[in-house]
Amino acid sequence: MSQRELSEHRRYLADERRVAAYRAALAEVVEPADVVLDLGAGSGLLGYLACEAGAKAVVAVDRGDIVGLGRRIAADNGYADRITHVQALSVELELDAPVDVVVCDQIGGLVHDAGVLSSFADARRRLLAPGGRLVPAGFRVFLAPVTFDVGRQAVEFWASRPGGTDVGAARALAANTEWKYHVATGDAVSLAPGDELASFPSDHDGPIAGTLRFEIGQAGRLDGFVGWFEAQMSPSVTLTNDPWSAERFDRSCNFYATDEAIDVVPGDRVRVAVDVRPRLGVVTWSTDVDHADGSRRRMRQSTLHGTLMTGATLDGHALGRPVPDSRRVDLLRAVVGLVDGTRTQADIVAALSDRVGDGFASRPHLEKFVRDVAALARG
Amino acid sequence: MTITGEPAFEIPAQVLYREVDGQMVLLDLASEQYFGLDEVGADMVTRLTRQPFDEALSSLIADYEVEPETLHRDLDELVESLVGAGLLERVAEG
C-alpha cells in the first residue's frame, strides 16, 4: 500500500465518531438473516459492523487490491465465513440474489464525489431487494459564506509570481477548482449562519442544485463558501462534517472560492446558486454580492474552467459536434483516397486545393485537416 | 474588430463554454452533453455573440479566403445547428 492509502484508511478507522455512527446505524437497520452489500469496502470495517449487527452474510466489493487485505482482516477477526470479498466496480457486480441492505462510506464534501450517488442508485436498481434499505438513507448539504485564509491563499498563490515567474495563467484554474479541506472550527470564519442547499435520498441520480441567500452578520472578507453534509444514517443516527459542529467527524468539506476576495460588512447580502452535476463531475457556482451602499459584484465560476484541457482532450469531450461537416466527410474520403504511400502531404494538399472555399475556409485549414488525417492513418 | 450594434446571439445561461487552443467546448447542462466547435466554428460563434449578424458576416468574409456565398451558407448552417441544439439564442434581429 502507498503512504497515501495507508494514511487514508488509518484516518477512516481511527475516526471514533464515524465508527460509532456506522455501528449504531447498522445495529438499527440490519435485521437477523439480512444480506448486506458494502460498496467501496476498503479494509472492510463496515462489513464487520454489519456482522456484529446480525447480518447473515456480507458482500464486500471494492475495485482496488485492498480486497486482499480486507479478506485477511476478515479472517483474523473470525468473519471469513460470512463475508465475501469481490474485486470489481460495484456497477459491474452481479449477484445471484438481491441483498437487504446496501452500506457505503465514500462520502465527503457535497456528497457527489467518487460516484457514490450513482453507485447507490445502481445498487438500488439492480442489487437491492424491494423494500431494501440504504445506509446512509439520505443527505442534506449545506453552505456558509466564509473568510478562509487557506482557501484564498490556494487561489492567490498563482498570482504571486513565485520565484519571479509569472504563473498567473493557473489562477483561473485555481479559482474554478472544487477544493477539499478538513475544515475544523477556527479554520474558517463564518460570515453568516450556514444554510441548507438541498436534501436528497442516497440513490439520487440527478443534479444537486439550490440557491441560498445570506445576510452578512459580521464584517470580514468573503473568500468563498464552505460546503458540508449531514447524512441520515438510520432513523435515529446522523453524521456530519459541519466545521462548526462539536459532533463533526473527520471528513473533508468542499470550498468554492469566489473569483475575488470581497470585503463585506453587516447588512450586505450574498446570494449563491450552486449546480452540481454528479454524472459529469462538474460544479457551477454563481455569486452575487449586494453591498449595503448599493454596489454589486457578480461572479460565475465552474469546474469546467478549472479543468486542464488541450485541443486533444477536447476531442474526447466533444461527444456531439454540431458543426456542419458533410462536406468534410466527403473531403475525408478524398484525402484517404490519395494516401497511397507515394504522395506527400504537400502533394495531397495541392491535389485538393480547389476545395478551399468549399469544404474549408482557408488553405491552412485544409493543410491542418490533411495533417490530422495523415496522422490518423499512421496511428 | 469594429462593433457598432448589439450582438445577434448569446450563449444561454444553461450552457457552459470555454475556449481551448482556439477551439470551443460547450456543455449543455439541460442535456448534460458536451459539444465541440473547431477553430472556425469557435471564431464564428465568438463574433456572433459580440457583433450584429451582418457585421459578423462581413468581418468573417474579410478574414477568410472563401466565397461570400459559401461563408454565408456555412454561417447560416452553423447558427441553425446551434440554435436547434439549444447552444445559441437569438437576442437581436439582423
Topology of helices and strands:
The complex is a heterodimer of chains A (379) and B (94).
Chain A (H helix, E strand, L loop, with lengths): L2 H12 L1 H14 L5 E5 L5 H8 L4 E6 L3 H11 L6 E5 L11 E6 L11 H11 L1 E8 L2 E10 L1 H8 L14 H5 L3 E3 L7 E2 L4 E7 L6 E8 L4 E15 L2 E4 L12 E12 L4 E9 L4 E9 L5 E7 L8 H7 L8 H13 L6 H7 L11 H16 L1
Parallel strand pairs in A: 1-2, 1-4, 2-3, 4-5
Antiparallel strand pairs in A: 6-8, 6-9, 6-11, 7-13, 10-14, 11-12, 11-13, 14-15, 15-16
Helix pairs in contact in A: 2-3, 10-11
Chain B lengths: L8 E2 L4 E6 L2 E6 L4 E5 L1 H10 L4 H11 L4 H17 L4 E2 L4
Antiparallel strand pairs in B: 1-5, 2-3, 3-4
Model description:
The complex is a heterodimer of chains A (379) and B (94). With 379 residues, chain A is α+β, with helices and mostly antiparallel strands. Chain A has helices at residues 3-14, 16-29, 45-52, 66-76, 116-126, 149-156, 171-175, 311-317, 326-338, 345-351, 363-378, and strands at residues 35-39, 57-62, 83-87, 99-104, 128-135, 138-147, 179-181, 189-190, 195-201, 208-215, 220-234, 237-240, 253-264, 269-277, 282-290, 296-302. Helices cover 30% and strands 31% of the residues of chain A. In chain A, strands 6, 7, 8, 9, 11, 12 and 13 form a seven-stranded antiparallel sheet that branches. In chain A, a hairpin with a 5-residue loop joins β15 (282-290) and β16 (296-302). In chain A, α10 (345-351) crosses α11. Chain A starts with a helix and ends with a helix. With 94 residues, chain B is of the alpha+beta class. Chain B has helices spanning 39-48, 53-63, 68-84, and strands at residues 9-10, 15-20, 23-28, 33-37, 89-90. In chain B, the strands form two sheets. In chain B, strands 2-3-4 form a three-stranded antiparallel sheet. A two-stranded antiparallel sheet of chain B has the order 1-5. The longest helix of chain B is centred in the C-terminal third of the chain and has 17 residues, at 68-84. The relative contact order of chain B is 0.25. The model of chain B has no long low-confidence stretch (mean pLDDT 88). The interface between A and B is medium-sized, with 31 and 33 residues.
